[in-house]
Amino acid sequence: MVAFAGTAQEKVIRSPVVSTEKLEYVENFPDFQRKTNTEKTSVYSYIVSTILTTSEPINQYIQMWIEKEINQFIHDVEKNNPNDTEQHPAQLHISVEIYGVTDEIYSLIFTVKNKETNRQDVMKIFNLDLLNHKILSLTDIFNLDHANVEGFRSIVKEQMSVQDENSLKEWLEKSLKQPNQLNWQIDQTSFHLLSDAPENHILVEIPVEKLSPYLTNDIMNRLQIHFTDDPANSLHPDGKYIALTFDDGPSPSVTPQILETLKQYSAKATFFMVGSRVLSYPELALQVAGEGHEIGNHTGNHSNLSKLSEEQIRQEIIGSSQVIESIIGESPTFFRPPYGVYNPSVEKVALEHNSPIILWSVDSLDWKNRKAENVHQLVKENIAPGAIVLLHDIHQSTADALPILMAELSNEGYQFVTVSELLSLQGISGIGPYYGVSY
Ligand code: ZN
């Protein structure tokens, strides 16, 4: 065994036999240069390439990362007994590709290959913002606040292929905790997520339209992505639209099943939630909102408001609204009184709070019958374009009825929208009460 403390040993490793630096023109990117450094000693060699951009701060940042990789490599070599490797010097190879997104945004894709040390090959993507002299992080392109992260995650999951679902799920859970460690790329049409292992990278490709609710305005402008801001703008005035509404939840056993069915039809619905239940199941409320559904207020405790004083009514409505806002980050758009019961005091408080009262035109009676066939039949008999359908996401029978009901309605040409979309389509505004259309 050779003792490793001696300076002579260190010198052997560190003194380069050959060291070169080469600058080259980068094909298709005349403003940039490819810089390749090589170094060879008796125990290791490396070839490291990078691309020099027009931004000095960015170049420095990437240079720091490269030096860290080289130092780590040399450290690993030193840790192994260098005498053992003398015949086969350890090798580090860092290569880079460049991808232009706009005149100011570029991706540098590095591959780090590390032979004869125990480290895995690694892929690392830097997304460069030459205008602002910075490396873009995931949070520069997405608003991933508390309310959004669930929706973002569910869109990513939706795009995965089935066979890698588990590994991707694991990887994503881990990665979303440190979004800046994630390898990603974006352009005008799609967003890619990649793992950091180049040979079996997991790749998720998501069309940017799907992610548009989460994209920051800055990145939308810079990529020149244009979507209609108001979803109702893309609805056809003569379309057969209905609003499914789900009251009394969220419920941990039923709500997720309903979300799953809605997702299969790319349907958006409105959930009138009870404040106390939102407090009990905040993640579920967040998930509903994150998947693009509308959240309505169904009071704090599901009280019959006609039996309360005006002040109590105020507490039931405004208290619940505050609970919902504190959890999903937005106050509920509409208000639905429990049992559909309201009086002038309720209307007064709703007006004060600018919460339109939404009732329904089709009652599934799911709360009463608790049979999937009955729910299905009643809705089918009474449905008409413009209908608001009353359902409850707390009964298993409702979750059971939904797949067939939605399949049939969708075969008949119905499309499922939120209450906001339905009302804006019909040019309705004001405090209501509003019932929707029935057959
Ligand atoms: Zn209710």
Any chance you could write out the topology, listing elements then pairs?
Blueprint: H1 7-14, E1 18-25, E2 33-40, E3 44-52, H2 56-79, H3 82-85, E4 90-100, E5 105-115, E6 122-129, E7 134-135, H4 138-141, H5 146-158, H6 165-177, E8 183-186, E9 190-194, E10 203-207, H7 208-211, H8 217-222, E11 241-247, H9 255-264, E12 270-273, H10 275-280, H11 282-290, E13 294-297, H12 310-328, H13 344-352, E14 362-363, H14 366-369, H15 372-382, E15 388-392, H16 396-411, E16 415-416, H17 419-425
Parallel strand pairs: 3-4, 11-12, 11-15, 11-16, 12-13, 14-15
Antiparallel strand pairs: 1-2, 2-3, 4-5, 5-6, 6-7, 8-9, 9-10
Residues 247-248, 298, 302, 338 line the site of zinc ion.
Task: Sum this structure up briefly.
The protein is α/β, with parallel strands linked by helices and 439 residues long. Helices cover 38% and strands 22% of the residues. It folds into 3 domains: 3-136, Heat Shock Protein 90 (2-Layer Sandwich), CATH 3.30.565; 140-222; 231-425, Glycoside hydrolase/deacetylase (TIM Barrel, Alpha-Beta Barrel), CATH 3.20.20.370.
Number of domains: 3
CATH class of the largest domain: Alpha Beta
Low-confidence stretches: 1-8, 228-233
**What is the topology, as strand order, of the major beta sheet?**
1-2-3-4-5-6-7
Which shape, going by the Cα principal axes? elongated
Distance between the termini: 91 Å
> How big is the Rg?
29 Å
CATH topology of the largest domain: TIM Barrel
Helix content: 25-40%
Total strands: 16
Q: Structural class of the secondary structure composition? A: alpha/beta
Measured by DSSP, the beta-strand proportion falls in 15-25%
Are any ligands bound, and if so which? Answer: zinc ion
